[in-house]
Structure formats: structure tokens, C-alpha cells
């Protein structure tokens, strides 16, 4: 009767085991890296979604309340009589700055793109409302950056007088403010959802006609 001797692993067997272990470690490393990249993309998407929600909510609140103040002095023929400017890529109006931003009360406001660290940023400029209606020097006004790396910013203004209502990239009416403002913008190559903000006249703002406020082209 012969006895089997335990000779241990052969060199080939050790090489096979080491190769298998290396493959397992490589697979685990690749899986962990993929999980980390997925988490980073998810975090970036959540951050972008949260930024979009906060910015949209802010714009809905601050742009939706407009004072219907008229310009002082004698106006030129066909000139917009209101302290409101609606252009294709910027908008300026008189509204209320939320108190939580440390600047409550009625303000001159302007929303436009400005250079910021080599990119274009969505910037809100604001300066205290003056009774004489003097438009501020926007370059020296306070600023609040709402979004960075903005590629495009486009406004459109709704005239509710015709049927159906008409949209235009520039507000040229001399007897009314727009009924709604539409905002299209893209950031980092990705478009934001279109925002449509109904404009509401602030109580006590002057400039209304004798028969009531003319707003959005309808009486």
C-alpha cells in the first residue's frame, strides 16, 4: 500500500491563482471607479436640478411683481412711457427685492448676462428706487449672480390685446406692459426649461389710466 505525499501547489497552479486574483482586483477596481463616476454625475445632476429650482422660483417671485411707474418729464413721440425696458437679451423694471436677500423694498432691477470668471453669468442688478425716476448706472449697482456658465439668454413678451395673444422679442407698446415674460436660457450646453412669468402690477404704483390700470394690452 502506497502513501500519497502532499507536494503542495505547483508553480503553474500559483500563477493561475495569482492571475485570477489580479483579474478579480481589476474588476473590483473598475466597478468602484464606475460607481464613483456615477455618483459624481448623480450629484452634479442633483445640484443642477436644485440650482434650477431655486433660480426659477426666485425669478418667478421677483419678475412677477412690477411697478407701473411712468417716466418723468416730456416724452418723445412713440416712446415707452413706463419705467420698463423689455429687450431680446435683457429686461429692466421696477419691482420688489425680497427681504431675505438683505435688500427688501422697491428697487430698480435689471436681468442680463455679464462676464464672470471667463464665462457669461445670469446677473441681477438692483439699485434703490428713487421717486424722481432716475435710472441708475447699472455698472455700479449691486449685483446678484443667479447662474454661471450661461450660454444663451432670450426674452419674449406677450401682448394680450390681439386674439390670439402675440409674442415679440422686444416690448414696443406705448400704452401697456406685457402680460407675461418668457425666458429661454441654456447653461453648459444644456437648455433650461422654458419659464413663463405672468406680470402683476404692484398695488399703489402710479401710471394707471383714469379708467384703471392698462396691463398686458387689455382693459
From TrEMBL:
<dbReference type="Pfam" id="PF07963">
    <property type="entry name" value="N_methyl"/>
</dbReference>
<dbReference type="InterPro" id="IPR045584">
    <property type="entry name" value="Pilin-like"/>
</dbReference>
<protein>
    <submittedName>
        <fullName>Prepilin-type N-terminal cleavage/methylation domain-containing protein</fullName>
    </submittedName>
</protein>
<dbReference type="InterPro" id="IPR012902">
    <property type="entry name" value="N_methyl_site"/>
</dbReference>
Amino acid at each position: 500500500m502506497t502513501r500519497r505525499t502532499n507536494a503542495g501547489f505547483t508553480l503553474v497552479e500559483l500563477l493561475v491563482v495569482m492571475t485570477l486574483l489580479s483579474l478579480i482586483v481589476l474588476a473590483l477596481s473598475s466597478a468602484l471607479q464606475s460607481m464613483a463616476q456615477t455618483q459624481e454625475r448623480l450629484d452634479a445632476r442633483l445640484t443642477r436640478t436644485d440650482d434650477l429650482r431655486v433660480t426659477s422660483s426666485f425669478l418667478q417671485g421677483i419678475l412677477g411683481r412690477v411697478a407701473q411707474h411712468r417716466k418723468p418729464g416730456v416724452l418723445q413721440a412713440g416712446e415707452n412711457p413706463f419705467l420698463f425696458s423689455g429687450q431680446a437679451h435683457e429686461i429692466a423694471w421696477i419691482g420688489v427685492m425680497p427681504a431675505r436677500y438683505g435688500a427688501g423694498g422697491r428697487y430698480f432691477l435689471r436681468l442680463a448676462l455679464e462676464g464672470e470668471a471667463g464665462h457669461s453669468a445670469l446677473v441681477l442688478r438692483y439699485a434703490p428706487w428713487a421717486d424722481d425716476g432716475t435710472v441708475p448706472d447699472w455698472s455700479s449697482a449691486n449685483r446678484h449672480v443667479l447662474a454661471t456658465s450661461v450660454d444663451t439668454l432670450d426674452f419674449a413678451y406677450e401682448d394680450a390685446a390681439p386674439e390670439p395673444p402675440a409674442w415679440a422679442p422686444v416690448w414696443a407698446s406705448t400704452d401697456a406692459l406685457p402680460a407675461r415674460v418668457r425666458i429661454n436660457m441654456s447653461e453648459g450646453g444644456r437648455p433650461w426649461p422654458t419659464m413663463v412669468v405672468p406680470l402683476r402690477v404692484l398695488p399703489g404704483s402710479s401710471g394707471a389710466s383714469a379708467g384703471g390700470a392698462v396691463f398686458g394690452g387689455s382693459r
